[in-house]
Design goal:
Elements lengths: L2 H13 L2 H8 L3 H15 L4 E4 L2 E4 L1 H20 L10
Antiparallel strand pairs: 1-2
Length: 88
């Protein structure tokens, strides 16, 4: 799993759907959908319940959501902050 996939998964559930999450992440809805499907294939289980009112997490999806948020937060804290070079 990649951090970008986890961020995408989190966004879909926080926004309640693929369209809003795609707008938030500045990606196409189809690209985001492919990312989530790929994650589901690799894990061998459905993570989202898709319905007319949006998406909700399956039991496994809810577990992954908690873990993904923790991993992303840890990643962001551990990543070194870089500053752009000053002009000459």
């Amino acid at each position: 799993m990649e951090i970008r996939e986890l961020r995408a998964f989190i966004a879909v559930l926080e926004e309640g759907g693929l369209f809003a999450a795609a707008r938030r992440l500045h990606v196409s809805q189809s690209a985001l959908s492919q990312t989530v499907r790929s994650l589901e294939r690799r894990l061998g289980a459905r993570l989202l319940e898709r319905g007319h009112a949006g998406v909700t997490a399956t039991e496994l999806g809810a577990l992954l959501l908690r873990e993904a948020k923790s991993l992303v937060e840890h990643h962001d804290r551990a990543r070194p902050v870089t500053t752009p070079p000053r002009p000459g």
